[in-house]
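Form 12-C: Joint structure prediction
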Amino acid sequence: MSEKNSETVANKLARLSELVAWFESDDFVLEDAVAQFKEAQKLAEDIEHDLSELKNEIVVLKKKFDEE
Amino acid sequence: MENLVISVTDAIALINQTLDYAFPTLVIEGEVASFKVNQGKFVFFDIKDDTGTLGCFMMVFQLRMPIEDGMRVKVVVTPKLTAWGKFSLTVKEIQPVGEGSLKRAFELLKEKLDKEGLFAPERKRPLPSLPRRIAVISSTQAAGYADFVRLLNERWGGVHVDVAHVQVQGFEAPKQIIRAVNYFNQQEELPEIIVIIRGGGSADDLSAFNDEFLVRAIAASRVPTVVGVGHEVDESLADLAADVRAATPSHAAQIIVPDKNDVIRAARHEVVRISNVVDGAVTELSSRTRRVLTDALRSVEERFARVADLLASKQTMLAAYDPNAVLARGYALVRGATTIGGTIEIEQAKRFIEAEVKHVREK
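Section 2 - Result
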């Protein structure tokens, strides 16, 4: 579950970077900018929310390493 | 016992049995002398102090750090009487002790492994930027481990962390760490990073991380490694063999995951930045629109002025043809029959005159 969420954060960060790159590219057109901007704004909010919620899962292995 | 007669072989066996019962293992500290390797396999040396000397034997593959005469070492041994009647210590473990000996062993091994290319920069692999599965090798009781976990949890979330609890100092430490490295490298689902951490300690405490076999295991790991041992000033050979060296366990956490607060700030900053791009584009567009409208208006005004000029010129022309203007200059208009006795009307600028025609003459 946590891995899935973490991956989603990674995906959202990647998508946000894509959008930012679009705004700085020659493909930028004002007609599409509002929709793209809204998506970026929503992603930033989601990333903040996800990162505030996510917890690490720490498992100390039962396996002993004191013998072969 | 005095009446018991036994063979030499049995006597040796009996003595060894007694020794084994009385001293199954001894840990002895002393200085190495007469160190030599025979046939590339057998190691002989003496361990001595101011007043005594003991002969030692071990196999070359048991050497985990370079040893040479003059080094102070700690040995784990089993005392034994050989078939030739010589008393000898069979060495199970050997480790340099004391700052000078450890430093010398470190330098010798560093030079050897460096020549083999184990520390070469081109061997270093990049770490994944947002790992989801990592493996930690440490003692869970160590302060360094607690620092690592605290910082990891503060900085990022969503990471699955498998922890191998091992000894991080002493003779057993390198073996346990190697087993843990191998264990993680053999998993069906490999971790993305193996992190080996230990807090600060004396040179003796940290010497486990200069173990040749451990250094080789780290260098051979399929999974990229981060080693954070001791404090910033401590350098171990395990550090040098790792893909990434962390100065401390806390620093290891900082290397492995970003700070979520930085990421959140960066995401917000990106939104502000692209909002400025949109604002800029809107400003540019409205400015362009204003320029177009201004140009259009100027064009209309110019056309209007041209038409106005034309009109004025026509008006001037028309004014020149105005009969009243001619009358104003003193001329008169004459209407009526121009026959003798006829009546004519003479129009001047300010009056009309009726007159009778008395004479008509051709020009």
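Section 3 - Comments
Chain B touches chain A at residues 130, 132-133, 140, 149, 152-153, 156-167, 172, 176-177, 179-180, 183, 260, 263-264, 267-268, 270-271, 273-275, 277-278, 281-282, 285 (CB under 8 Å). Chain B has four domains: 8-96, 121-258, 260-320, 323-356.
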